[in-house]
Each structure stands twice: as structure tokens, then as C-alpha cells.
Predict the structure of asparagine synthase (glutamine-hydrolyzing).
Amino acid sequence: MCGIAGVVGENIQKESIYKMLLSQTHRGPDDTGIWEEENVVLGHNRLAIIDLRATSNQPFTDNSNRYHLVFNGEIYNYLELRNELNYNFKTNSDTEVLLAAYLEWGKDCLHKLNGMFSFAIWDVKEEKLFAARDRFGVKPFFYTQIDNKLIFSSEIKAIHAFGLQKTPNRKVWANYFAFGSYGLPNETFWEDISQLSGGHYLEYSNKNSKIEKWYFFEKEVEKYQEKYTYEEVKSKYSNLLKQSIRWRFRSDVAVGFNLSGGLDSSALLAFVNQQENSENIKAFTFYTDDKRYDELAWVEEMIGITKNPLVKILLKSDEVEELSKKITHYQDEPFGGIPTLAYAKIFEQARKENILVLLDGQGMDEQWAGYDYYLKKKDTNIIQGVNKSPFKKDVLSKEFLALAEKPTYPKPFKDNLLNKQYRDLFYTKIPRALRFNDRVSMASSTELREPFLDYNLVEFAFAQPLEYKIKNEIQKKVLRDIVSEFLSDSITYAPKRPLQTPQREWLGNDLKDFVSIKLQKIKESSFSNWFDFDKLEQEWQNYIEGDNDSSFHIWQWLSLALILNENTN
């Protein structure tokens, strides 16, 4: 896990790339490297995970000195690919395997990679840049084109550090406030900065760029023509998951585990301990000392079974103000509230204990239809646990609301449930969680790996019939039946519980003054015309007085204030 940056174009000031790398040095504190020639500069922040020697530092150059690579992520099947390649390797790194794979197969190498990655390769002879992002967009790639230059990086702040003016993307912000959207896969909250969508590649030469899609998920799902019995599905999925875990334990540094009390992370830990010595896998969890929300009881029940060392991390309300300011700096965009702050403390503690890689259980609900709204025929709010709409359009000014456009998503499948799962996997739930978690883990220079998001697992699960996913309103049926022999019934058959904190109570009580001050900051800013402040202040007063079924809208306003504060100092 690292940070990448680069500029292609004329009259590049070398200091600008140093500023970019300095802004994201938390992504890779072990080494900073730069390669340059006329009209191109590549930079890299290294967090050493595989082959810790300096010979694996980046930018990395092939044996012919023609190709130069900057790479963020991990290629989990690099050992298998290495055996396929007829190449004189100088290192034991997955970085060199990636470059050799590109030399051998060109852009087709992408289909052979099992991993999380964003990378860029400069071809000296052709004067051409090739960049790509993994299937689900686990690793970030941001870019802009200004003044006949292509500028790219792992974080938005690096492009701003290059010198691009900080201008909010008003349409994305309007959609966020009106519909809870965090932008489409190619958008950001900042004007003139785009993302390369997951499963896409970019080519740039002669001041022109071309973006193409390389991963067609629905076509891969369609390849599963063979019909499996329920027992065959259980067996095949178990074997795929074991392989995914085995590959994600490839590391030259210690690996730990991010554990909640839910089925998904508990199931993953159970599988991990089938293959690894539980004494060597330290688990991390957070709690808030509020039994209405804490999952500590289920976590401790799970640890009682697996015997892993457990590190419990307490998040207190009086930490939220400073922590939210700190994490806003690393996020660059609105993030998911107080649970993200709790995650920040987990990664910070893991780093202190010299655990540089953590595994997480993200992605299972999208595969096996685990969210409660999958049971409903009509589309519903994708924020769980609230009865009323969490969005407060009436507090927005008419002019600002007019910018909002309700997001629509592709429906590549005939089945409505599959289309909901597809939406969550590529447009809403997973992209959002991956963004929050990449930035919050990298803030502490730690790497987060997602075994459930191995594309083999996701494609196979999507191809299975509905009755294997939901039966008698029991969701994630296959997973529950697989892990029932490892876990207690209270974990195996527990209903889905959204990961929660006392955010609703804290914002209206302990953090009331903090929120009020931040709302006043918005009112006094140039963004006050985004709102009808009489209505906003009345809504805030109603919330304080107990109309607080959802705190999402309060966190939205707070997010804007925090980002304003971060970017106007």
C-alpha cells in the first residue's frame, strides 16, 4: 500500500511533485522516490509490505529502462504470475511482477491480476502513459487535465498541492445533501478533479487521454452456466474463500484483523483461523461504552471460540471534535460519521503495535443479499435503521437544490434483486466504504485488505439463484450454513445489525455546542447561500429537542463545516 503521483506535460516544475508527495506521505513513510525525464515526472510514497528491501522501491524500472512504474496496492497472485513469466527478476516484489506482466501481455495483463491496485506505467519509447484501477476500485486514482498536463495521484489533496485551486463541485454537493449520494464512480466533491472508475484504464499521449472499461462484471457472471447444487455451492464458495484468505496473508509484515460482532467478520475470522495460527492473529475492535450500540459482547463471544488476542479500543464523545478535524484532513471529502472515527482509532492502535496489515469483512452483504431492503420489492432508503427520510431537502435554497439530480444506476440484470446488489457493489455501499476505509487506514500508514472482495467470490455468488441467498426471509443463507459448524447459533443466525455508534445522541447532547459552532461557520461563509438558514436552524433545534430519528443530515452539515475549516486556513 502506497501513494502514487505523476505529471505528464511541458514545463513541469520538479518542486510540484515534491509537494504532491509530501501531502500524502502518510500513505508511504518508508521511502519517497522520483523518476523524471523531459515532460514527465513520476513519484511514489512507499509503505513496505512485500520484499522490504530498497531494491523494490519505486518508481520501478524494467530491465530495458524503457518502462517506469508507480504502483499502489497488492497483487495477491504475484507468485503464480511470476511462474508464468519468462523474465529476469531482480526482486521478490509484486511490483516487478506487475511490470513484467504488462511487458508480456500489455493491457490484457489486467485480467490476470488478482488484487487491489492503481498504477501508472510510462513508456519512454512511445511517450505514452498507461494507468489502471482494480475491478472494484479498492485503491484510488485521482486525476485532472489542466494547462495541457495530466496530473494524477492517490489523494485529492496531492492535486491541490500541485496548485489546482480548491473549488467545490456544487452539483456533487447538491446531490449529497438532497439524496445522500457521494458522487458517481468517476466524480469527486472538487471541481476539475475526477476519479478513474474501478475496472477502467486510462491512456495518455500527445496531450490526449482515452478512458476505457476493461472489467465487465455482468459478462463474467454470465459465464457461470453450470448449475450447482446447494451443497456444491457451499463447497466451492468455501474453497474460493480459503484461497482468497491465503493470498491475502502474503506479507512480509504482521497481519491483524478488524473484528465487529457481526456474522461477516466473525465468519471471516473463523476461516482465517482454519489456515493460520490464531495466537499470531491479533484482532482489533472498538466500543463506546453504550450497550445499546456496542457489539463487544458478540466480539468477546467470538474470541472465546477462536482464542485470538483481542485489542479493545474505546471511543469517547469528548474525542470526536479533534478526531473529526484530523480525519477530515485525510478524507478530503465527506465521510461516514462517527464509525469512521472509531476505525481511525483502530488503525492508529494497530500501527502502534506494529501491525501494518489488517483484514476486514467488507463485501459479503452485497454478494449474498444481506441488507434488509433486499427483501422489499420497492426501492427504499439505503440508510438502515431510520423510519423517515434522512435527507432534508427543505433546508436547501431553491437555487442550490435545482443543481441536484437524483442518481440513476444501470440495471444490467433481468432480476431486480441482482440490480440492487449491483448498485450497492459498484455505485453506493461498496465504493463509499472503500473510500472511507482506504483513507482512514492510510492516515495511520496501515494497509487494509478485503478478502470477501476477491472477484472470484463476488462473481460466483452473484451467479447463484435467489433461494441460495434468501430462504424463509433468512438472508445470506449460504454463508450462515457454511459457518454454522464453526460459530455459535447466536452469531450464525443473528439478524443483520448495522454498525452503529451513539452518533445520534452525542450530536444532540455532548457535541451540541461543537455542532452549533460549526453551523454558524457555514452561515458566515460564502456557502451560506446553499441553504435556507431559517429552516436549517429550526431543523437543528427540533433535533436537539428530540426529533432525532436520524442524525445523517446533521452529520452532512457538520461535514461541510469541517471541510470548509480544513480548506480555508
